[in-house]
Amino acid sequence: MDRVVTPYEGSGYRPWDDAAPVPAPLRLHETTVDPRWVDYNGHLSESCYLLVFGDSADAFFRYLGIDERYRASGRSLYTADTHLHHDREVAEGEPIALSLRLLDHDAKRLHLFHEMHHAGSGLLLATAEQLLVHVDTERGRSCELPVELRDRLSAIHRAHQDLPVPGRVGRPMGIRR
After folding, report:
1. 98 with 56: CB under 8 angstroms?
2. What is the pLDDT along the chain (177 residues), one digit of tens a residue?
3. What pTM value is reported for the model?
4. Domain 26-160 has CATH 3.10.129.10
5. Long-range pairs, 7-12, Cβ under 8 A, ≥24
6. For the chain, first and last CA: distance in Å?
7. CA 30/CA 96 separation, integer angstroms
8. Are 157 and 101 contacting, i.e. CB atoms less than 8 angstroms apart?
């Protein structure tokens, strides 16, 4: 059985450049709704929203310097928590553009916020908030990011710290009464 791969696996991607300004937010991934992602209601399937956000996160990892070679060294980022918010439907063949901001980070963790927009109309389709943990995959436990990656995260965080924090960040799920 084939496994799910991101569009960036084994291919070129936008690498880190110490001299380049960091965009706020980052816009590293665009795609169109693939026919395989459409459900029986005629729009992007619930699970495929997460697939697309995952592809955006993978573009970010590669931008940061976490690629096949890095993972082969026995380290990676694992998702610890994800909160998805679905705002609008999007249909087969429609263009979508993703943005990503780094809300916070420490030596082992990253807190990200993604937005998915319709690339034609600009309408917000969905958001995802993620907490990621840096892991030593050989030992099966969290570990500190290398200094070089922490420095890059600090540069990204400085560029993103003046962006307004979306109101849904950190919001608990529940039935409001």
Report:
1. yes
2. 678 888 888 876 777 899 999 999 999 999 999 999 999 999 999 999 999 999 999 999 999 999 999 999 999 999 999 999 999 999 999 999 999 999 999 999 999 999 999 999 999 999 999 999 999 999 999 999 999 999 999 999 999 999 999 999 998 888 888
3. 0.93
4. yes
5. 7/31, 7/55, 8/55, 8/58, 8/59, 8/62, 9/58, 9/68, 10/68
6. 46
7. 6
8. no
Of 109, 102, 62, residue with least CA distance to 81:
109
| DSSP state letter for 24 | S
Which amino acid would we find at residue 48?
Answer: C
Three-class SS string for 25-91? CEEEEEEECCHHHECCCCCECHHHHHHHHHHHHHHHHHHHCCCHHHHHCCEEEEEEEEEEEECCCCC
CB atoms within 10 A of CB 47: 10
CA distance 86 to 58: 21
What is the rounded CA–CA span in Å between residue 46 and residue 136?
A: 31
Greatest CA span in the chain, whole angstroms?
51
